[in-house]
Fold this sequence. Notes:
The structure is a homodimer. By secondary structure, chain A is an alpha/beta fold. Chain A folds into two domains: 5-79, Winged helix-like DNA-binding domain superfamily/Winged helix DNA-binding domain (Arc Repressor Mutant, subunit A), CATH 1.10.10.10; 86-198, NAD(P)-binding Rossmann-like Domain (Rossmann fold), CATH 3.40.50.720. Chain A is built from ten helices and ten strands. The interface between A and B is large, with 63 and 63 residues.
Amino acid sequence: MNRDYADVSMAVIRRLPKYHRYLKDLMEKEIYRISSRELSRLIGFTASQIRQDLNCFGGFGQQGYGYNVEELYNEIGKILGLHKNYTTVIIGAGNLGQAIANYPSFIKYGFQLLGLFDVNPKLMGMKIRDINIMDVDLLEDFVRENKIEIGIICTPKEVAQNIADKLTKANINGIWNFAPVDIKVPNNVTVENVHLSESLFILSYLLNEKEHFKKK
Amino acid sequence: MNRDYADVSMAVIRRLPKYHRYLKDLMEKEIYRISSRELSRLIGFTASQIRQDLNCFGGFGQQGYGYNVEELYNEIGKILGLHKNYTTVIIGAGNLGQAIANYPSFIKYGFQLLGLFDVNPKLMGMKIRDINIMDVDLLEDFVRENKIEIGIICTPKEVAQNIADKLTKANINGIWNFAPVDIKVPNNVTVENVHLSESLFILSYLLNEKEHFKKK
DNA sequence: TAGATTGTTAATCGATTAACAATC
DNA sequence: TAGATTGTTAATCGATTAACAATC
């Protein structure tokens, strides 16, 4: 049993949300126990890897039985910090910002949206999910006063670093960044990037792979 | 020199879009040559890794000189297939679908949107970027008739597999999937997932990591 | 030519898989 | 008890880093 989560590699951690999702599905299907072998068949990881992964965080299984679905789901949820609530703001209230504001699992898992910010005067006063869109000049004070934990950057890439700096100054804990740049922040701020164009380019690569191969 | 791209590991391939992006930045700054050491400092990979990565696809550099920025940018663009155009449709014309439709790098790199589909009658006839929103019942015929290469799924998770099946039947090449499920398709269809909630959960994990550590 | 930097091989590191004793 | 399946160690595989000869 290993409770020093800092030892666990990012490779393992990035698989946790997928376990979480499949366990949720199993719960909805009223399946109460599952072996690493069955889970392997569903999820596509080897049974060995599943047992290794889960054991990084504790002995959740039982020999001869397998894993209790609900218990494992809850444990992984806790490891991911999904039992807590987080205060968030979105900067950039265009299509993407609005999409995030309305994203089901965002709402469902305790990510509480307290403010939306933009530079476009036309958007000021508009409401998304009962949240007023505010001028980005108010961002720093708002984040400080409301002790916002997570800032979500949905702006064009040109201003993303500037927004990140403001968030950092206002003592943000984490940034979820959708702008296609690598923003720089001090060590005490956590950044998670969603680089949509990188994903699209990989798709483009994969579509061409066979042709590259033929050329050989 | 290795031109059998099928040999190149996904780890390398997933780094290519980042090289591409940084080289673009360098071009805009009118920097014409760069060594692996300088690029390393910018991008955060080791110089050794950069040289290894690039050498999977050919000897783009020159001893004693480094890499020609523009040439390397163009070569990586070609490897990623960004010199081509792709025909696409978006299924699900909500916030996310609209955000993708208007996403700058989507438009910029030759991903041509030909159709938008939804089930919501209120959206029918609406236009996004001059594209009519159509009923999803028309999807299969439209994809077949217009030889659509890429289908972009921006629907709720419940219908994503059904949409993927329709796309597959209509001879789609690739699917860019934003629904939080792992869709199943035959081998000849390429799927690239963007699982937003997984990314959010990782951020949540990282925000809590220090606390886990303290408990030890 | 001398200096710089690549391309490439070899060494190291880390992650995945296999195997099996422990145990429910 | 017998069968099943975990937890965990050891073996394998793959990816990253280091080193340096080749060469511009």
